[in-house]
Amino acid sequence: MSVGGGGNLRWPVSTVDDRRGMRGRILVIAAAAAIGAGLMMLATRSRPDFEVWLRQDIRGRSPLVVAAMIALTSGPLVLFSGYLWKRREQPRFARPVAVALAGSAIVLAFLLWRLIWLLTDARRSISR
């Protein structure tokens, strides 16, 4: 059905598949919110133990912690940008957004690694 007497704009027709897809999206968002809340509670409870573990060998364990931070922050960005890049029915802006996400993931990883390098280098110079 066209809008305005012969235009190319078409109204979306709701089907059963559209409603199922919407339920799936809502379920994914709700699950992600619940998992995020659970992880935040876990982080709050285990923070003192983590700090003790990190301070036992801060020079050796700091790069490990930063590598985990890089993987947890940049990894999803890279995966989502790959999804956007390979999507078959994509809007015009999907590929530039994918490139921007991948670029920001790379910049974030570099900045986090540079930060830990500077902090461990400064700590070494102070302890000398």
- Uncertain segments are none
Order of helices and strands, N to C? HHH
Number of beta-strand segments: 0
Radius of gyration (Å): 23 Å
Categorize the overall geometry: flat
Count of runs of 4 or more consecutive helical residues = 3
Structural class: mainly alpha
Biggest sheet overview: none
Query: What fraction strand?
Result: under 5%
| Whole-number total of structural domains | 2
Percentage of residues assigned to helices: over 70%
Average of per-residue pLDDT values:
82
Q: In angstroms, what separates the terminal alpha carbons?
A: 77 Å
Question: In words, what does this structure look like?
Answer:
The chain has 128 residues and is mainly α. It has two domains: 1-46; 57-127. It is 81% helix and 0% strand. It is built from three helices and no strands. The protein has helices spanning 16-56, 58-86, 94-127. Helix 2 runs antiparallel to helix 3. The radius of gyration is 23 Å and the shape is flat. The N and C termini lie far apart (77 Å).
How do the strands and helices of this protein lay out in sequence?
Layout: H1 16-56, H2 58-86, H3 94-127
Concise structural overview:
By secondary structure, the chain is mainly α. It contains 3 helices and no strands. Helix content is 81%, strand content 0%.
